[in-house]
Specification:
Elements (H helix, E strand, L loop, with lengths): L1 E6 L6 H4 L5 H13 L3 E6 L7 H11 L3 E5 L5 H13 L3 E5 L1 H5 L1 H5 L6 E3 L4 H12 L10 E5 L4 E4 L37 E4 L2 E4 L8 H4 L2 E4 L2 H15 L3 E4 L8 H13 L5 E6 L6 H10 L1 E9 L3 H6 L6 H14 L2 E8 L6 H14 L3 E6 L7 H9 L23 H16 L2 H9 L4 H16 L16
Parallel strand pairs: 1-2, 1-3, 3-4, 4-5, 8-11, 11-12, 12-13, 13-14, 14-15
Antiparallel strand pairs: 5-6, 6-7, 9-10
């Protein structure tokens, strides 16, 4: 069977579209190729910046019989658009990913979508393709929902258990993508080429703003040997010099995290690494090993500078632990990136001020402030629906970013506060001097310049929403 895996084009800069190879599609492509039963074509319409006519031409020339796409809530509309193009050509459409896993019926309600995959897609996709080619009963394929009897009846098959041994999966088929054009679009980068990889799936924590528990119900991790093998594969096949480990929580299991570092050190792998981690659990011992293994920046999810807000969002961390971990990380010589969020249900003008002041106190090397977006599959989504803050997503409904509606803080005020926070944090002379003298490579200098220029002069500048110097509280 001829299957085309498509990453849909979306609105945005070419640089943002070429940030990273979509690992979900690359992993499914690797499994299809390994099986060897089906003809495969990968089309990254975003990275190639293809318009509808160009995409349709590629699908037609390939003779695709089925098209597969991954859908996150934010990019559901371009996914539906690709499905519409495919249906005009008589191609079967299959959609997997976060959005259809959480909202399978609502996703399948689009006339352009024939089948949705619920949960991990690698083995489900293979079985589905075999069933379609041999015209078998799709009810025998676990982990899908499909249309039956003139598309009026939806059939959901039994759930497919999560893959227990991720080491058995082939490495993502990055070579099937136009990998040389990806730019790793980020101001937080030291070396190129840069790629990202996952060493685990899932997260055991229950943060109210995150949908991870709706997807995984825990965490499944790869072995240190398998991870080091992939790092060496990326270096040998693609000349990679930096890797962003995209796991939810790299340091979830301290013993495993140390083993990964030990394996990289033992093999004498020379690589620059960035990782995402929690402030707890974290130890000086692990940080030293991470530094030796090549980690130069750690992304920490701080979220709030107020104890009550942290407790209400079930973050399971305390302000003092955050202080301690940031201090340890800096002492070891690893740069820190802090994620902060405002507009949470418990937020007030006072707690937003606490968050800003806490960010100043921690003084991370890099920060990201955002206003909470309420995503389906999260506890906050259910709370917002119950309170009438938002409406539940229905059939054939395109997701648009939704805010939690506060009784005392308007969205306009949150936007202004966000702009002010960015302005006050980044425009501190002390910070700008530290940021400049912290640059270690020409790649890092170029990345900072390219990323900063549009913000300083363009309409996307977050400072523009805070023209007036309004009080933070």
């Amino acid at each position: 069977m001829k299957i085309a895996l498509v990453n849909p084009n979306f609105e945005g800069s070419v640089e943002s579209k070429r940030a990273y190879i979509p690992l979900g599609l690359a992993s499914i492509a690797a499994v299809i190729r390994e099986q060897g039963k089906h003809q495969l074509k990968v089309i990254d319409a975003a990275a190639l910046n293809l318009n509808d006519i160009e995409l349709e031409k590629q699908l037609k020339n390939f003779g695709a019989e089925a098209v597969g796409l991954g859908a996150v809530s934010d990019l559901l509309e371009p996914v539906v658009n690709v499905c519409e193009i495919a249906k005009r050509l008589g191609i079967k459409t299959i959609v997997g990913g976060v959005h259809p896993t959480i909202l399978p019926k609502e996703t399948l309600s689009f006339e352009e979508i024939d089948i949705v995959i619920i949960g991990e897609g690698e083995y489900t996709f293979i079985e589905l393709l075999d069933a379609l080619e041999k015209k078998k009963n799709l009810e025998e394929v676990r982990g899908i929902m499909f249309k039956k009897k003139g598309k009026k009846e939806f059939v959901k098959t039994p759930f497919r258990e999560h893959i227990k041994d991720l080491n058995k999966l082939p490495f993502p088929a990055r070579d099937l993508f136009p990998w040389k054009i990806y730019s790793s679009y980020s101001s937080i980068i030291r070396k190129t080429p840069c790629m990202h990889m996952m060493t685990s799936r899932g997260c055991p924590f229950h943060c109210t703003f995150c949908a991870s528990q709706s997807l995984w119900k825990g965490c499944i991790a790869r072995s240190s040997k398998n991870i080091a093998d992939e790092i060496e594969h990326l270096i040998k096949e693609f000349g990679v010099k930096e890797i962003y480990l995209f796991d939810d929580t790299f340091n979830l299991d301290l013993k495993r995290s140390e083993e990964i570092c030990d394996e990289i050190i033992r093999r004498k792998i020379k690589i620059s690494l960035r990782v995402q981690a929690r402030v707890w659990p974290m130890t000086t011992k692990l940080l030293k090993k991470m530094k030796k293994a090549g980690v130069w920046c750690i992304y920490y999810g701080v979220e709030s500078g107020n104890e009550k807000v942290l407790k209400d969002m079930k973050k399971s961390i305390k302000l003092e632990k955050i202080r301690e971990t940031f201090k340890m990380t800096k002492k070891i010589g690893i740069k820190t990136f802090g994620f902060f969020m405002i507009g949470l249900p418990s937020d007030t003008r006072e707690t937003i001020r606490d968050t800003f002041n806490f960010a100043l106190e921690l003084d991370p090397d890099f920060v990201n402030f955002t206003i909470l977006v309420v995503y389906p599959g999260t506890e906050i989504y259910e709370l917002a629906v119950k309170e009438g803050s938002i409406k539940r997503i229905g059939p054939k409904e395109i997701f648009h970013p939704r805010r939690y509606t506060h009784k005392t803080i308007s969205d306009k005020e949150l936007q202004k506060k966000l702009g002010l926070i960015y302005k006050k944090f980044y425009m501190r002379p002390k910070y700008m001097i530290k940021r400049f003298f912290g640059i270690r490579t020409l790649t890092e200098l170029k990345a900072n310049f390219i990323a900063g220029l549009p913000f300083l002069k363009g309409k996307n500048n977050p400072f523009n929403v805070a023209k007036k110097w309004i009080p933070i509280d």
